[in-house]
Amino acid sequence: MIPLSVPNISGKEWEYVKDCLDTGWISSAGSYVDKFEKEFASYLNVKDAVSLVNGTSALHLSLKIIGVKTNDYVIMPNVTFVASANSISYTGAEPILIDIDEKTWQMDLNILKEFLKNDCQINSSKELIHKETQRKISALMIVHVQGNICDMEELLSITREYNLPLVEDAAEALGAKYDNNFAGTLGDIGCYSFNGNKIMSTGGGGMIVSKNEEYIKNAKHLSTTAKTNPLTYFHDEVGYNYRLVNVLSAIGLAQLEQLDEFIKNKILISEFYRQNLQNIGDIRFQDSIDAVRSNEWLFTILTNQMQKLLEYLNSNGVMCRPFWIPMNQLPMYENCIYISNKDTSKKIHNSALSIPCSTDITKKQLEEVVSKIKYFFDSSSKSS
Predict the structure, then answer these.
(1) CB 3.0–4.6 Å: which of 49, 79, 133, 169 could bond 143 by disulfide?
(2) Cβ neighbours of residue 183 under 8 Å, at least 6 residues apart?
(3) 205/246 Cα distance (integer angstroms)
(4) Are strands 128-130 and 181-182 parallel, antiparallel or unpaired?
(5) Which CATH class, in words, describes the domain spanning 13-256?
(6) Which candidate, 23, 21, 3, places its Cα nearest to that of 13?
(7) Is pLDDT at 367 greater than 70 in this prediction?
(8) What is the pLDDT of residues 328-353, one digit of tens each?
(9) What is the 8-class DSSP label of residue 145?
């Protein structure tokens, strides 16, 4: 079976992990935690970073740090992995779901602008209020779906106009760029994931970055159970045991050293598929705007025969997966406010299929994937 997207362990992972084991420093204290954070911040051209147990914890802490509270609303795209919405729920707030753009699969900013203009107002305290419910909208979470990025210049203009803190869910977009700025560094706070299928992995892990020093200070404090003194057990608020351990930070450091090569490979994989699957059946691809360099994290095609192709490939040695179910179709979020004109989310979900794109996939494997997809469409056209 050709896997969908698996870790590429080809650097100094074994060396660094062995150092942790040899010295006994495997938990949340240890030199690799600091090294990983410093090198990660340096890579992204930001001052500091905070490593955490996963991307979900990064989102959760970020929302708390910028002031999201119980009964607030947080605006987010309708298509994303469920962790984005769950992190909002953890704070006691509720998502407002915005439909996506048909070409880029990112939040549709035209729909967002119409919603803010027609359905919201700014009160005397300069808070954004949803007119119908009179509830505060305390943040906007943008998700860089599949490593792509929306028009961030326009989005930042919108968030400034409506006084909305911007959280970037860059879990899928590490290394992607907008106008030569890294995804996750343009908003008030950025979040990353190092899950097993991400472009670099620690098995499980996450990171917060921000240019706001107070946000970073708060993230470090809250993620270490809000302990005020390392020698005592005094905690000054409800904190979380969210810090990444040293042994996983060691893996992260080794992975980070290879990140540019991983991104290069992902882009080459995307170019190969786009060149060889163009004009095959009804296959279409995700688009990016000119200012964006996607990291091409998880290569995904569109076809009206998605379900049949999914079953065929998985039965013939090629692992593939459908897109995430849109948030408004999940039972816990089906009653959330969903702003849409023609439910593009549903249309994309019904036709999107992710195909193998590990950073160490071979040319032979890529050719096999293409060959089987071509065979499927050839067979389908002959039988119709």
Answers:
(1) 169
(2) 144, 147, 149, 168, 170, 173, 174, 175, 176, 177, 190, 295
(3) 11
(4) unpaired
(5) alpha beta
(6) 21
(7) yes
(8) 999 999 999 999 999 999 999 999 99
(9) G
More confident residue, 28 or 280: 280
Neighbouring C-beta atoms of residue 329, cutoff 10 Å: 15
Q: Alpha-carbon distance 25 to 316, whole Å?
A: 44
Residues sharing a CB contact under 8 Å with residue 235, sequence separation 6 or more, in sequence order: 225, 226, 227, 228
Residue closest to 62 by CA, chosen among 140, 178, 172 = 140
Instruction: Reply yes or no on whether the pLDDT at 28 is more than 90.
Output: no
Rounded to an integer, the average pLDDT of 24-52 is 95
* Per-position b or e across 165-185, b if 16+ CB within 10 A of its CB: bbbbbbbbbbbbbbeeebbbb
d(CA 262, CA 255): 9
Q: Where are the alpha helices (DSSP H) in 128-285?
A: 152-161, 213-223, 246-256, 259-277
Mean pLDDT of the chain: 97
The Cβ of residue 220 has, within 10 Å, a number of other Cβ atoms equal to 17
Residue type at 296?
E
Single-letter residue type at 359: T
pLDDT tens digits, 295-314: 999 999 999 999 999 999 99
CA-to-CA distance for 49 and 206, rounded, in angstroms? 10
Cross-strand pairs, 121: 129
Report how far residue 103's alpha carbon sits from residue 110's, in angstroms, rounded to the nearest whole number. Answer: 13
Say yes or no: domain 259-383 is CATH 1.10.569.10.
no
Structure tokens at 68: 């999201």
What are the sequence ranges of the domains in the chain? 13-256, 259-383
Q: Cα separation of 96 and 273, whole Å?
A: 35
Q: What is the CA radius of gyration of the chain?
A: 21
What pTM value is reported for the model?
A: 0.97
Q: Which DSSP string corresponds to 267-299? A: HHHHHHHHHHHTTSTT-EE----TTEE----S-
